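@channel sequence for tomorrow's demo:
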Amino acid sequence: MYPPPGMSRYLVTGGAGFIGSHLVDSLVTAGEQVRVVDDLSTGHRENLSSHAADAFEFIEDDLSAPGVAERAVEGVEYILHIAAIPSVPRSVKDPVGSHRANVDATVLLLEAARAADVKRVVFASSSSVYGDSPTLPKHERMPTKPLSPYALQKLIGEQYMRLYSSLYGLDTVSLRFFNVFGPRQDPSSPYSGVISLFTAALSERRQPTIHGDGRQTRDFTYVSDVAAGVIAASTASRVNGKVINLAPGGRVSIDSLFAVLKELIGADVTPIYGPPREGDVRDSQADNTLAREFLGFDAKVTIEEGLRRTVEWYRSTVD
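C-alpha cells (generated this afternoon):
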C-alpha cells in the first residue's frame, strides 16, 4: 500500500537535483511518504545517499516521455514540481530541448494530476520572468518581460498552472525563486549558479569569470529556506492559482559576493570580467510580502551563513 495510513503523500519531480533533494530531505525527516521522479540528466543519486533505500520511492525516467507522469502521480496528494533544465544560457543554446523539459513535461504532469485528483501542484517558477524592468523590488503584479527561452518557459508554466486552476479546478500555486544557492549545487557544470562556480574556482586558486561589471545585484536565497517555503505552499490556505515570490527580499552585488567568498576561502585571487551573458538581467530583488502573508515565509539563513555552509560542503566533497 502507498503510503501507510496517516502520512501525507508527496511527489517531488527533479528530486535528485539541487533543490529537489533538499525537499526530499525535509519531507523524509518529517515522516512524510515521498516519491521522486528524476531522469538524472542534471540530478545525481548521490544527493539522496544519506537516506535508506526504502525511505522514499524512486522513478528514474523522463517526465516528458509517454506514461511517466501518470505512473509518477498515482496515489499522491501533493506534487512539488521542481524538475526543469534551470539554465538561461542552456536555454539560449538549446531552446527546443529546454522547452521539452520545462513546458511539455509540465503540461503532461498537470494533465496526470487532474486525472488523479491530486490535492495541489506547487510549481517552481523563476524571477527571470520579470526581465530587465528597472523597478525594484519585483512584485507579482508587475508586467513580465522574459529575456530568454528559460524565462518564457517558466512564465508559460505559471500560466498553465492558473489555467488548470480556473478551468479544471486543480489546485495550483507558482513560486518564483530568486537565485537559490547552497550545498549540492553542481560546480562542475558551466550552467551552475555563480556561487558554486566561484567556490570551486577560488578553492582551486583559479580566476573565475564575472559576466558583466560585477555591480549587478541578486536576491540570493539559501536552499533550506526555499525548501521550507515550498513545503509550506503545499498545504497553505488561500493560495490556489496564485504566483508568489520566494526570497529574502535583499540585494547583493556580484562583486560583494565574490569578496565574501574570497575571505571565507582565503584565496588571493582576482576575477576576470567578461561581457554580460545573453538573457541575464541587471538587478533582481523580491518583494516577499505575499510569501510572508500566505506562507509565513521568513528566511532564516543569512547570505554570510549560507556561504559558509556552502564552502564547508564543497570542501567536504573534495577532501
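heads up for whoever presents: The mean pLDDT is 94.
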